[in-house]
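Journal club side-thread
Mid-discussion, someone asked how the predicted structure for our own chain would compare to the paper's figures. Pasting it here so we can look after the session.
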Amino acid sequence: MNQHLITDPEQCKRMVFLMAMLEAYPRRSDGGLHLEEYPDHNPLVLQDCSACRGRGKIMRCEADAEGFTMYGDPCAACLQTGITGGVERYFENTREIEVAVDSHGLVRCPGCGKGFTKRSKKFTGLRHRTCGQRIKIISPEGS
């Protein structure tokens, strides 16, 4: 983050708050879900700023003699931090859904529609890694 002088007291208070939130919670982009150790892990993460998509800069492209040049203008909405100051769960899908294994041994995720096997690395045993959907796999009738 670039250093810049903040002269408005309200902006200064907001910056102090945002910096404290950055110390207290991880960013969504930081990853670190620890799904191997905690298969149902769904941590609180900081909400990305919607104006700059969490970059802290508003990207724009301008044509020049050599082609195009990208510029990053400071985002005033988040004071270049890339966050709103709010927190949210990493995965939105918190409700567990029962799903049966099909005749080919695949489970179809109700959250994103992708198929995987029970032993796939895409499944933690409780969550589908791709979309975070909580899944309880049930055996098909007669198995």
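Post-session note: Strands lie at 44-48, 57-64, 67-74, 83-89, 97-100, 107-108, 115-116, 135-138.
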